[in-house]
Amino acid sequence: MDQLLFLFLSSIIILFFLLHAIDLHRKRRLPPGPPGLPIIGNLLDLGPKPHESLDKLSKKHGPLMTIRLGRITSVVASTPDATREILQRNDEACSGRVIPDAVSCLPDNDVALAWIPANESWRTIRKALSTYLTHQHKLDTLRHLRQNVMEGVLDFLRQKKAGIEIGKLAFAVALNMMSNTCMSQNVTNYESDDIGGFKTAVKTVMKVTGKFNLADIFPVLKPWDPQNIGRDAKAAYEWLDNVADGYISERIKHRESKLQRFGDMLDSLLDYSEANEAEFTVKHIKILLVELFLAGTETSSNTTEWAMTELLLNPDMFSRVRKEVATIVGEDGKIQEAKILDLPYLQAVIKETMRLHLSVPLLVPHKTETDVKLGKYNVPKGTQILVNAWAMARDPRYWGNPLGFKPERFLENEIDYKGQNFEFIPFGSGRRMCPGIPLAHRVVSLMVASFVYHFDWKLPHAREEMDMNDAFGLTLIRATPLIATPTPVVQNT
Ligand code: HEM
User: Fold this and answer.
1) 276-324: pLDDT as tens digits
2) 419: Cβ below 6 Å to ligand 1?
3) Percent of the chain scored above 70 by pLDDT?
4) The domain spanning residue 351 has which CATH number?
């Protein structure tokens, strides 16, 4: 009898655990993925170009795939349908962020727009930004400042008799266009280096944040900072934080003196702060300024460098852009920002550059804020979400001759980068989509149009010898810098 009771009770207990295990398995049914090694998971599968490796793996494991890196479980989307499931149907649940160790060194990162969850505080900051950055009319009022920046660069280039690194120059231009939009002044020059200045600080943060950091996947290593990423990020962030603080204090004094307003983004943000003191303070503005410089400069200059690379390799396209720009140049021989934004061929060249050389290949990683059902899978709260925008922009199912540079394709279709066409989302999609599109559109268009219209460019090697490799980081940069010698063109306008 005792034996029978024991058997009965143990069967019930086993059944209970079995049902519980099945239930847990059902609840946590993650998408399939490559088997990983103990502790490191799929780390060795990624290699130096994770966007390419993930693309290859997804061909075997599916459009929604799970990979594991140390303690981080990630779900990777590689097709428009899988991406729509994440960024459209489950946008809110998938709108969190995984904060890299390097970013935890940003002072006051609890109010950093790009890194906090999409909560009330995040909405307030996006609202504050929308009073200027996504407001076409406001951007228009200070376009003369960006044009002045461009005139300064053209003067600099006219003196140049040797090859220049176009990406480096574009980076300095993008910084000054950003600083003029934000606070009506230049922050750097066009000579090769301003060691210790703005350029160095922004570059350092971009470099260390884009580096593969062991401390991110093995948090026990954080206190040791084995690659000195935290140390370098902290120094650069603190420098930027101090400088932003200085600009804001100076502006507050200027506003108190009742002198004429600048009417730039800083004025807009201070107005917003005065009207919403409780939730948007000077601390928010300071971090926001730092973030805008970080998010907006390398992405824009990198796109410009790739666009110039493709145009220098394709002289017919270069001439076509120049002819098109010539149709809107004023009698003073200057290019007006407002007039180039709708030039169809120039815009097609820029879109095609963003497709083929997608600046942020895996977007900025998202994170699930709750348990969420993605298609037939159950993904638990806290899972990292990677969207392989790079793979979709080169997928032959959506693009004819996907590896060819063919701007004409964008003259023939209606595809845009506003987040509705999931095969082409260089700025992301959904609530975390890039708020800088209108400014990026202006900055990149102005640089490409001006470089092409005002100069002939000579490469130091034959076109066939151009290195087209890219290097993975926070943005997908050229592996070797584009160098070319400018010769001013005398236009008959
Ligand atoms: C060609 C230029 C640019 C590209 C390709 C680009 C791309 C992106 C991408 C892919 C994201 C992440 C979207 C996501 O998480 O799903 C992003 C976020 C962001 N971008 Fe841009 N961006 C560019 C220029 C700019 C500019 C000029 C600014 C500011 C002036 C800017 C500010 C931001 C900010 C603040 C975020 C974070 C938004 C959030 O997390 O809520 N970007 N950008």
Assistant:
1) 999 999 999 999 999 999 999 999 999 999 999 999 999 999 999 999 9
2) no
3) 93
4) 1.10.630.10
Q: Is residue 20 domain-resident? A: no
pLDDT of residue 127 exceeding 70, the answer is yes
- Judge whether 10 lies within some domain: no
Distance 436 CA to ligand 1 centre (A): 6
Q: Is residue 7 part of a domain?
A: no
Tell how far CA 135 is from the center of its chain. 20
| Beta pairing class for 384-387 and 72-77 | parallel
Q: How far is the CA of 493 from the centre of ligand 1 (A)?
A: 37
State which H helix or E strand residue 12 sits in.
helix 2-27
Q: Does residue 304's CB lie within 6 angstroms of at least one atom of ligand 1?
A: no
Per the domain annotation, does 350 fall within a domain?
A: yes
Residue 174 CA to ligand 1 centre (angstroms): 14
Give residue 371's domain range: 31-488
CA of 303, closest atom in ligand 1: 1
The Cα 228–Cα 312 span in angstroms is 38
Residue positions counted in the chain? 493
Alpha helices of 194-314 — where are they, by DSSP H?
Answer: 198-210, 214-217, 229-256, 265-275, 282-313
Compute the distance from residue 275 Cα to the ligand 1 centre, in Å: 26
Dig out the tokens for 123 from the structure.
């909405």
CA distances from 97 to 113, 150, 250, 364 (A): 10, 36, 33, 8
469-485 pLDDT, tens digit each: 999 988 999 999 999 99
177 Cβ inside 6 Å of ligand 1 = no
**CA 291 to ligand 1: nearest atom:** 35
- How many domains are there within the chain? 1
Q: HEC profile for 79-124?
A: CHHHHHHHHHHCCCCCCEECCCHHHHHCCCHHHCCCCCCCCHHHHH
Q: Which of 427, 447, 474 to mutate to test the pocket of ligand 1 (most atoms within 8 A of CB)?
A: 427
Instruction: Tell which residue, 457, 488, 450, has the closest CA to residue 177.
Output: 450
